[in-house]
Write a structure and sequence with these properties.
mainly alpha, single chain
Length: about 100
């Protein structure tokens, strides 16, 4: 899978996940947590406000993963026979 495709799928997935998470966390917060003491509501707000970071981080890590090594072609070392080395001018280089 190409990097562009993976990033597109990951972006759409992240937006869908966050929308569902906000709806679920809001429903739980308005339902059971609303009648709780203030300290429990604060704890729920802290946990619910930070719990989405772990799955989102895993998804972003998957999106940023490089291609497998089998798809990458090895580069030749910059030795005397490389084209980049041959293209360099010989002698003095004028001041730019």
């Amino acid at each position: 899978m190409s990097a562009k495709t993976r990033k597109l799928i990951g972006t759409v997935g992240l937006l869908l996940f966050l929308a569902a998470y906000v709806a679920l966390a809001g429903a739980v917060g308005l339902g059971r947590i609303a009648e709780s003491p203030p300290l429990i509501r604060l704890g729920y707000a802290l946990i619910a406000g930070l719990a989405w970071v772990i799955p989102a981080g895993l998804l972003i890590g998957w999106m940023q993963r490089p291609k497998p090594c089998s798809d990458v072609k090895p580069r030749s070392p910059a030795g005397s026979d490389s084209p980049a080395r041959k293209a360099r001018p010989r002698g003095r280089v004028p001041y730019r």
